[in-house]
């Protein structure tokens, strides 16, 4: 049966969405995007992830110990950026706010001085840089649980696209640095899309999330809307792997970590927005 498209226009703060409907029981992604006249600072399309349960983590014996145990976790509805934040979008934030320029991995001078990298994901951002950008964009960093649900859907699959092996058409990973040819333009590998249509959640750039990192968090985390451990420290969670990551680090369940002042050629981010209330970031 061919899906029927119905465009619903509302105030962007309440989400303007393209709602895809089909036969009863079918599940379709909802893509939220601002109207053409939007004055949003960052009018990138977002994908609405419906409320409900998903399988988070891995069964003991699979993956790494910090992914155990696998649990059923309930999340309220939220929206997440369709693609990673690009150099172009990040430099608009810098121009608007006076925020510091990130280090330029491609040469000297600001990122705006290098042509042809506008649609590559911004990297070398700290956790604080990522949080500041999302705040400017009237969004927030996703929680670790939100990121994982957006990446793998509800069925506990190994990769965003399923359980099939990773290929060069599905993910940018396990490569060496070759300047402007290292990172791929966002959204350029559609074979690697998640079940919700979220792009580049395996490889390309690793992504900061909101949570503090605790290798044992899954053993005691709440089963509803986990926000990360309460303890404070210097290490935040990072998800998704990068262009340099081995296969084990680009799975949908793999957990990375880094000090919140960390800046690397492989770490960027994307933003999220709550659709039912606002989650607090720690």
Write the layout of secondary structure elements.
Elements: E1 4-8, E2 17-21, E3 30-32, E4 46-49, E5 52-56, E6 71-75, E7 78-81, H1 87-97, H2 127-136, H3 144-152, E8 206-212, E9 235-239, E10 255-259, E11 267-268, E12 272-274
Parallel strand pairs: 8-11
Antiparallel strand pairs: 1-2, 2-3, 3-4, 4-7, 5-6, 7-12, 8-9, 9-10
Keywords: Signal
GO molecular function, one term: formylglycine-generating oxidase activity
Protein name: Sulfatase-modifying factor enzyme-like domain-containing protein
Which features does this protein show?
single chain, 282 residues, alpha+beta, paralog of FGE (formylglycine-generating enzyme), 6-stranded antiparallel beta sheet, 4-stranded mixed beta sheet, 11% helix, 19% strand, disordered N terminus
The computed structural class is alpha+beta
Percent range for β-strand residues: 15-25%
Outline the biggest β-sheet: 6 strands, antiparallel
Total strands: 12
Helix count?
3
CATH class value: Alpha Beta
Task: Give the SSE order as H and E letters.
Answer: EEEEEEEHHHEEEEE
CATH architecture name? Alpha-Beta Complex
CATH fold group? paralog of FGE (formylglycine-generating enzyme)
The helix fraction, in percent, is 10-25%
Strands of the largest sheet, in order across it? 1-2-3-4-7-12
What is the end-to-end distance? Answer: 45 Å
Keywords: Signal
Pfam families: FGE-sulfatase (PF03781)
GO molecular function, one term: formylglycine-generating oxidase activity
Protein name: Sulfatase-modifying factor enzyme-like domain-containing protein
């Amino acid at each position: 049966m061919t899906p029927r498209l119905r465009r619903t226009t509302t105030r962007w703060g309440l989400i303007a969405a393209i709602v895809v409907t089909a036969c009863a029981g079918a599940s379709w992604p909802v893509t939220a995007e601002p109207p053409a006249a939007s004055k949003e600072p960052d009018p990138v399309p977002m994908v609405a992830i419906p409320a409900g349960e998903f399988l988070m983590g891995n069964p003991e014996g699979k993956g790494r110990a910090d992914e155990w145990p696998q649990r059923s976790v309930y999340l309220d509805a939220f929206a997440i950026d369709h693609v990673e934040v690009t150099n172009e979008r990040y430099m608009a934030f810098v121009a608007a706010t006076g925020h510091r320029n990130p280090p330029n991995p491609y040469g000297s001078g600001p990122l705006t001085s290098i042509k042809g990298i506008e649609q590559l994901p911004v990297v070398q951002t700290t956790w604080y840089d990522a949080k500041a950008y999302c705040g400017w964009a009237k969004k927030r960093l996703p929680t670790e649980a939100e990121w994982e649900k957006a990446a793998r859907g509800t069925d506990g699959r190994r990769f965003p696209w399923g359980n099939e092996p990773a290929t060069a058409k599905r993910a940018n990973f396990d490569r060496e640095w070759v300047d402007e040819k290292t990172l791929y333009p966002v959204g350029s590998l559609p074979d690697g899309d998640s079940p919700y249509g979220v792009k580049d959640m395996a490889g390309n750039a690793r992504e900061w999330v909101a949570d503090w990192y605790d290798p044992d968090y899954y053993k005691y985390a709440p089963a509803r809307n986990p926000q990360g451990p309460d303890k404070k420290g210097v290490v935040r969670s990072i998800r998704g792997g990068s262009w340099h990551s081995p296969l084990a680090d680009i799975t949908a369940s793999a957990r990375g970590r880094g000090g919140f002042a960390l800046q690397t050629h492989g770490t960027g981010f994307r933003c999220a927005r709550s659709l039912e209330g606002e989650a607090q970031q720690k």
